[in-house]
Fold this sequence. Notes:
Residues 14-74, 213-273 form the HTH tetR-type domain. Keywords: DNA-binding, Transcription, Transcription regulation. Residues 37-56, 236-255 bind DNA. One of its GO terms (molecular function) is transcription cis-regulatory region binding. Helix 4 (59-87) crosses helix 6 (108-117), helix 9 packs across helix 16 (351-367) and helix 10 (215-230) packs across helix 11 (237-244). The protein contains 18 helices and two strands. It has two domains: 9-195, Tetracycline Repressor, domain 2; 215-392, Tetracycline Repressor, domain 2 (Orthogonal Bundle), CATH 1.10.357.10. It has a two-stranded antiparallel sheet. It is mainly alpha-helical. Helix content is 71%, strand content 1%. The two termini are 43 Å apart.
Amino acid sequence: MTRGVQGDRQGGRRNRKAELAAAAAELFGRRGFHAVGVNDIAAAAGVTGPALYRHFQNKQDVLGFVLLNGIDALAERLAGPVELAEADPAAALRPLLVTAAEVSIEQRALTALWRWQGRHLHQGDQKEIRRRVGALLGQWMTGLRRLRPPLDAGEADLLCFAVLSVFGSVGDHRVGLPAPEFASLLASLAESVVRAPIATGSAAPAWRGGPAQTRREELLTSATRLFRERGFPSVSMEDIGAATGIAGPSVYRHFASKSDILLAASRRMSDRLRWGLEESLSSAVDASDALRRLARSYVDTVMRSDDLIAVYTTELVNLPERDAKELRALQRGYVAEWVRLLQEARPSLSEPAARVTVHAALTIVNDLPRTGRLAGRPCLAAELAGLVSAVLGV
């Protein structure tokens, strides 16, 4: 039986551990892992801080419990469709994808937790989550290769991880649709990935080059890498200086604070995305062509700015509110351009459906270059651009 994170009764007693986990999940999702303390979790569940330690050693244990339960729930719900897929992959495909979509939507908060807070887990929990997800993916890949026999193992990997990104994208936005419509749309987007042709060749447009590697640029590069790996609150100016080979106080000659470094990194990423958007629009013949060009541009920008895009999408909460508000508006404006073009290319799509579709496509590009098993694929840029086009339907 899957362990649930919802409060329930076991033999007439309240499942206090599950209640604590549910309270923690809500707080982690709303405030971020570092901003939540053990006493916050205890208070939200209506107990004292010491009472929490009867169930968990620390808040990392709580996070691990929440996420492992979520994976167990997904595996339990998918057991029937996966069993059917072993006998008839074609007949099982749609039920499998719809069920996975339903679970992703129902556990939207947990999906977001894994995507943005999973790096804070204990190493043992990270390994266990990868093991369980890997076992599930192994079943999917076996079914996929039976459904599409020409696929090799690497291509099946690519498509299965892209499908995971489609389902995981619901944790990146708050677009609302009626549950049946939402699940059907998400399943259709995942099916477009499953059936997508594997692209070949290079999809990288010309690049104008980055700034010269001055000391300031070295600091910016080191800081963004550390922010991505550890999270902004866990990195000090001394850490940034050490990673660049200079004394911590010397960092202040170039940046007044950590927030200034984060702001500089975020504005740089925003500028790169805006340049790619303008280039794509200026040379396109219609909305579909603009989206295909924009897909290639986005892939190239992300693959050349791996740390920057990770920081840009996860760490704005750590900026002063005025700066964070400015950058969130730029992010929304960028996505809105994709949505506008998609509705122009496919007028039957509602605005919410178009936004869900765009977020699914962008999440594939954000995720796959950071997936170790895929990062070394020689044609990954072309493959990603092809997957984006498949999801968008252009």
